[in-house]
Amino acid sequence: MARFREIPGAALAVGAFVLTVLLGVGGASASALWQQSATATMTVTASGTWSAPVFPTPVCSNVDTANKYVSVAYSGFSEAPAKLTFSAAGTNGIYGTSTDMAGPFGTSGSVSIWGDSTIFSQVSTTPATIKIVATFSSGLQSTATVKVNLEIGTGNKKIYCA
User: Fold this and answer.
1) In this predicted structure, what is the pLDDT of residue 45?
2) 139 partner at 20 to 30 Å CA-CA among 26, 55, 73, 84?
3) Residue 81 burial class via C-beta count within 10 angstroms: exposed 0-12, middle 13-18, buried 19 and up
4) Residue 8: how many CB atoms within 10 A of its CB?
5) Which has the closest alpha carbon to 149: 62, 78, 75, 82?
6) What angle is formed at CA 158 by the lines to CA 153 and CA 162, rounded to 5 degrees?
7) 66-107 pLDDT tens trace
8) Do residues 31 and 63 share a domain?
C-alpha cells in the first residue's frame, strides 16, 4: 500500500484542510456535518374552518308549581357561548319571533323559559319545539332543540316539559 504523501494531490488536500481549520472557515458547518446535528425550524399555519362546539341535548325540567316557566339545562360545551338565541315553532314547524339572551354563560348552566315569552307569540298548536342557538365569540353557532307543551287558548300561559 502506498504511503499517504505518495498519493497525487495528498499534500494539497492536507494543506487545504489545515488552512481551513486554522482560519476557522467553515468550521461550524464542518462540525455540524461531522456530528450530524443541526437545528431546523418549521412553521405550521392552520387553515380551514373550525367547527362550532357541539350543543348537547338540553334537559327540560318543570320547576314552578304554577307551571309559568320551565328550566332548560345545558352542559358539555367546550367553551362558553357568548349569546343564546331562542325561537319556537308549533307542530307546523315554522319558527316565529326570536329573542336573544346575552351572557355571561358558562360551559354548563340553565335558563328559564316563561310561558308568556314572545317566542310563543306565533305558536298556535302544541307541542312546541324551542330552538336554542348558541353563538360563540368566534361567531360560530351550534343549535339544539327541546319540546314543551303549552296551554293554548286558556290565557293562563302555562308551560310544561314534553
Assistant:
1) 74
2) 73
3) buried
4) 6
5) 62
6) 105
7) 889 999 999 988 899 999 999 999 999 999 999 999 888 999
8) no
Residue-range definition of the domain harbouring residue 18: 4-35
Q: Which amino acid is at 48?
A: G
Please, where are the H alpha helices in 24-154?
27-35
Other C-beta atoms within 10 Å of 49: how many?
6
Output the pLDDT for position 33: 55
90, part of any domain:
yes
Residue 44 belongs to some domain of the structure: no
- Side-chain-side CA neighbours of residue 101 (13 Å): 17
Name which of 108, 120, 105, 127 is nearest 155 in CA terms. 120
More confident residue, 149 or 50: 149
Identify whether residues 26 and 87 lie together within a single domain: no
63 and 134 belong to one structural domain: yes
Q: Model pTM greater than 0.85?
A: no
Between CA 51 and CA 49 the distance in angstroms is 6
Name the more confident of 145 and 8. Answer: 145
- 91 and 135 share one domain: yes
What angle is formed at CA 125 by the lines to CA 141 and CA 73, rounded to 5 degrees?
Answer: 40
The grid coordinates listed for 20 are 481551513
